[in-house]
Amino acid sequence: MRVAWANFVAIYRKELQGYFATSLNYVIAAVYWFMAGVFYIILFNVVQTNVAAQDMQGQAGLSAPPVDVPAVILENYLGMLASLSLFILPLLSMNVFAQERQQGTLELLATSPITTTMVTVGKLAGVLTFFVTLLLPVMFYESLTLLQAEPPFSLGLILLGHGALVLLAAAILSLGLFVSATTESTLLAAVGTFALILLLWILQAVADRVSGVPAAIFRHLSLLQNYTNLIQGSVSTASLVLFASYVILGVFLTVQWVDGLRFQRS
Amino acid sequence: MITVEHLTKRYGTTLAVHDLNFSVEAGEILGFLGPNGAGKTTTMRMLTGYMPPTEGTAIIAGYDVLTDSLAVRQRIGYLPETPPLYRDMTVQGYLHFVARIKGVSAGDRPRRVDWAIERCGLVEHRNVLIRKLSKGFRQRVGIAQAIVHDPPVIILDEPTVGLDPKQIIEVRHLIKSLAGDHTIILSTHILPEVSMTCNRVVIIQKGRVVATDTIDGLLNRTDNRTQYELKLAGNLEPLQQALGRFPGVQAVDIQSEGDNHKVTVTTGGKTDVGPELTALVVQAGLKLYEMNRRRATLEDVFLQLTTQEEGTEAASETPAANAVVKSP
Interface pTM (ipTM) of the complex? Predict the structure, then answer.
């Protein structure tokens, strides 16, 4: 157990160092922060305009339901961040195994006293940590604005919402790891991951078009549906279990695939 | 230290390695020799636990590669054909990482990494990013990576490929200096490398062992023929007649271009006609420009052994088989 932990730490540290040493990741971070910032400002203005309109209606004597502005902003913004992450996450996971295969370092890992599971879990933790670092500044300016609200908005809700986003990212990255393990080309890995998660994302749209048991299955498997459940504040065990299942499935498939590479003639 | 028993690897229907048996004593350097595609890399991969054998097994430092894979991996240092390097890491950072995943304890790590860096002549490059290193230095980092955890067994797959002559000599010295404390298997298709570094040689061909022997033993396998190659000018006839009467001479081959002649004299057994030959040349009044003695080399043995299979089908028509007799 201690050996496994030491191996996990070794891989995790190496991955993190790798992320901060790659210039591409700084570009990704810059784009992510820029887009997230722009979205936030736009969203903020739209909500403000809406609230102002409602105020006018109220003054005109029409009764409008009260709006919890911070909650509306947070919910919509988390939806936007998730869509943005769909484009960013495949770029983060594409290199993880494809590059190891390409430069032959997978052979080093495979001939070291370390299990493939530890390698995979360590790498997943590494890339997830990088994504969380991307979220930190975003969360900072959200808190800065939302916590000014009157009555005070709870920091817990912000954390919870972003927890859901991290969970979603973990599921996507885990599947991305698997796609990355199946190819030596990082480009192919990125495109493949994007296609796969897009499919899982829009399963809900498919579910709306069909009925009966398939619809229920699609709706249940949809990443978007479960993510929406979570950010709307309804923390359901089913959704949590689904995300956890995606993570475990990704890790499992990756380990199987990487171990299977040993049998191939290269 | 290493025992290989009935090791077999099949890829689908192709037989890559067939029933390999050999053993390596502690402290020995074993040369693993074979033409490209003979199954060298596949064998090395099975020994390192990277690839499971289809049949048979190998025992390394007392552990079975099949059942105790992790224990074996901890006791092996392996340099694959392409050194497994992370291009964005520094030499030192990379070696620290390798030491860590090879299970070197935190207390020992700095000492081991320093030792490997020093041993491989990387002291001045320890803080350089690997992608900025030249091919020769990358190869050294590859070797450093294989020895950083002080494994009893080191497996090197073509360690000198792509290096310049000076680097090749340095790497060979490094490998030789590691023997004794470590057991080394070295795969190569470069023959001088084997005669310079290895104690013993396993020659494989199409996945089968065709010979396991010491280098002297291998050399004695040939029929001990000696060849003299002379470049002469003048009238050859007296020499030809004299050679005809000479005991032990197996063949005389003459190629003439005007007044210049190239004469190849082949003798069998232990007869050495060198001194007599010079005397004859002087007596015949010929001008001698060049005289070479050629004994059987490891190359001859190698070609003989690795072309034997085709040899039986195509007789001695293959150029390689001819080379054993004729090549200069």
Answer: 0.86
